[in-house]
Every structure is written in C-alpha cells, then in structure tokens.
Amino acid sequence: MKRFLLPLGIFALLLIVLAFGIYNAPKNGSKEIVSPLLGKAAPQFRLPQLADSTALLENSALLGGWHLVNVWGTWCHECLAEHDTLLQIKAEGRVPIIGIDWKDEDSAATAWLSQLGNPYELVATDHDGRAAIDWGVYGAPESFLVNPQGIVVEKLIGAMTIDVWNSRFLPHLAAGTPASAKAGA
Amino acid sequence: MNRTKQLAALAALCAAVWTAPLFAVDNTPPLPDPVMQQRYLGLTHELRCVQCQNEALADSNVNLAADLRLEIHDMLLAGKSDEEIRSFLVARYGEFILFRPRMNWHNAWLWGAPGLMLLAGFGIAVRVMRKRASLPITDDDEPGSTPAA
To answer: Which residues of chain B neighbour A133 with C-beta distances below 8 Å?
Structure first.
C-alpha cells in the first residue's frame, strides 16, 4: 500500500497545480494582451490635428487632468459600435476624450464625426501608424485612461461600453489612482 | 464526384501551390545589405503578429504586421541591434510578441524544470540501486529457486 503513496501524492500535486492554472487563467482566453504600458508614462507623440493639420497635438495635451485616449478609424466596425458610448462619456463631462485617428483618410474621419457626432475634444491623425505602434495598439478600437501626471492607468482593447467604463475606468478617478495601479483589470 | 472534376481540382491545387510565392505577403523593400536582410528575416520570423497571434510578422498580411515590418526594416537601417529591436517591441506589446520567450523570474521554474526532473530521476535511480545492492544475493522466497544443477 505504501508504494502507491508517492505516485498518488505526485498526482494530487499535479491536480493542484493544474487547478491553480485554470482558475487563474484570464476569463476571455489569451486574446487580450496585458499592455506593458500600464503604470508607465504615455508614449511621446507629435501628430497633426484632424481639425487643422497645421496644428500639432502632443503629450503635453494629456497633462493636468484625466484623459481618455481613444484609438479609432472609420474603417473599424467596432469603432462604430462604441461611438454612442463615447458620446455618452462626453456628455457625462468628467473625462475629455482625445482621439487618435489611426491610418485613416482625413476626409472620411471628418465626415464620420459630422454625421455621427463628435465625442472628441481633439483628434490627432496618425497616417503612417507609428504613433499607434508606440502605444502598443494592435486592433482598433483601443482606449487608454491617462491620469493628470500623464501615466497610463487603464487600457481596454475593443469597444467601450458603459459597463466597462463604470466598472474599470471611472473607479480610477475616484481613487485618484497613483501610478502602477491596475485595479479592476 | 467524377474523374474529370477530381483532376480539375488537383490541377487547381497544384497551380495554387506553384504560384504561392507570387502572393508573398511581405512587401517591405529588401535591405541593401544581405547580412542585414538575413537579420530582418530572422526577426520577422521570431516575432509574433499580435493581431493574428499565431502568425509570425513575416507571414501576416494584416496592416499592423506590415507597419511593424517596416519599423523593423527602418530600425535595422538605423543600425539598431537585434536585441534593441526586440526590446523596442517588447516595451510596446509585451513579452507576448516574442515567439521565443526570454528567461525571467516568472518562467524560471519552467526553464529549470527539466534539470530538476533529471536530478530527481537520478536520485531515485541511486536509491533503488543502493536498495537492490544491499539485498542478499540469493532470494529464499522465490519458489523456483533450487541449488544449481
């Protein structure tokens, strides 16, 4: 009987390890990659604005208050899905939204905003996609919450919904979150 | 399905295989230096297209992969080392972009596991051999044991 104890013990240990792995696995599989940007300063960027391509939009625009940076494009279906939510967030008036129009035609973007309503305080145009690479964007829409010190504290890949906004983004404001906080992720 | 149809399908398949190189996804201009081009090919094959996840950057035809290939191309031209380029991408997309993960504290146990298991196996083998060696040479319990004929 005693000789079975060791293999049984190893088997039990294996079960524990596997159960631990399963319960700690991300709920939506491995699809959403945790951004290495969380807790770090927002990447440097310097992009022409959609409203006036001679004016530049830079990081300094993110300092001094909370901002939501939203990467979008008119070619992106999910962006259409989240548009109403962005308008709602704008109406709420707590966090201004800065748009980064990713690899898009300026004329298409302008038409989109005039037809569907403009949730953005400012929109920068990233024609060659370099700024998006610096932000670690791999699929629009992506939204980043940047605190008044210019630190990225939350990130969502995919369409923003009011539920996600209330449960994952707004709590950061209430907590006045210091850097490196990842609550609710 | 009749025979002609089968043949036609086969012909179509062959044609598709033969012309596949014409549809190569990587349109990034080749680098002037063959050594650099070799490094470019190495990097684009060992870095993941984060959008399609199970494809390498070299094999993916999504826009982002093309942008990242161009970025790697330009960084090579600018004289960056392979490691600098990997670090650039890891800083933005995380370790996940590497098909060959680096060793760190999170995965050290994984790298060390084979060695540990080998040691454990060796330990067990030594114990079993010691135990066997200390047994009497003749086994009285064995029913068939008789003095040598």
So the answer is: 67-68, 71, 92
Return the closest-CA partner of residue A80 out of A29, A120, A116: A116
Cα atoms in the Cβ-side hemisphere of radius 13 Å centred on B127? 6
Residues 70-129 of A with CB under 8 A from B: 103, 128-129
Nearest to A129 among B53, B67, B94 (CB): B67
Cβ–Cβ of B93/A135 closer than 8 Å?
no
Q: Do residues B93 and B113 share a domain?
A: no
Predicted pLDDT at A183: 42
CA distance B98 to B77: 21
pLDDT at residue A121 in the model: 94
| Most distant CA atoms of chain B, gap in Å | 86
Domain count, chain A: 1
Note if the bond before A96 is cis, omega within 30 degrees. Answer: no
Q: Is the dihedral of CA A160, A41, B104, B65 positive or negative?
A: positive
- Of A142, A179, A137, A149, the C-alpha closest to A164 is A142
Q: Name the band, by pLDDT with cuts 50, 70 and 90, for residue A185.
A: very low
A30-80 pLDDT, tens digit per residue, is: 556 678 889 999 999 999 999 988 899 998 889 989 999 999 999 999 999
Q: How far apart are CA B10 and CA B19, in angstroms?
A: 14
What residues have CB less than 8 Å from A112, skipping those under 6 apart? A74
Q: Shortest Cα distance from B8 to chain A (angstroms)?
A: 38
For tokens 């951004």, name the residue. A35
What is the ipTM metric for this complex?
Answer: 0.73
CATH of the domain at B67: 1.10.8.640
Residue written as token pair 């370790």: B95
Rounded to two decimals, the pTM is 0.72
Asked if residue B126 and residue B74 are part of one domain, the reply reads: no
Q: Which residue of A has its CA nearest to B124?
A: A6
